[in-house]
Give the backbone structure.
Amino acid sequence: MTAKPINRRTILKAGGTLLLSVLSPLPARAAQILAVRVWPAADYTRVTLENDSNLKATHFLVPDPHRLVVDIEGLELNPTLKSLVAKIESEDPYIKQVRVGQNRPNVVRLVFDLKEEIKPQVFSLEPVAGYKHRLIFDLYPIKAVDPIAAMIEPTAVRQIRQ
């Protein structure tokens, strides 16, 4: 019995199959949150998530009670992100509290319970100086703070108390 000659295509198919069986797909590495910061102010509150790569976030508002929901893709919940809960102070003019959880694989959900209706701005900033990538949430009130009224109001309150 004569052996059938092996052609080039058969060798390439066998080699490709062998190569694919040896190489396993590499798991995608989730981004890491490096720092969280909260800056409450009369004009707005800023929440910053500093991370090692650019993140994709989507957000929506839920009325009654007012909430801001943010889904961040490519992220696994870590202790640094969980620390955001403790950074919300009772004096914050717009945020009552925040809840942080793993919504689904590679998606973290932040739910900001709000003290009043807000206009959110969610955006990213590229690395600069000592900062890495940053995902920013600016929470502005629907009714903007009138700077003149803000200056007069404390004076009027002081005069009434005297």
About this structure: Strands lie at 33-40, 45-51, 56-62, 67-73, 95-104, 107-114, 118-125, 133-141.
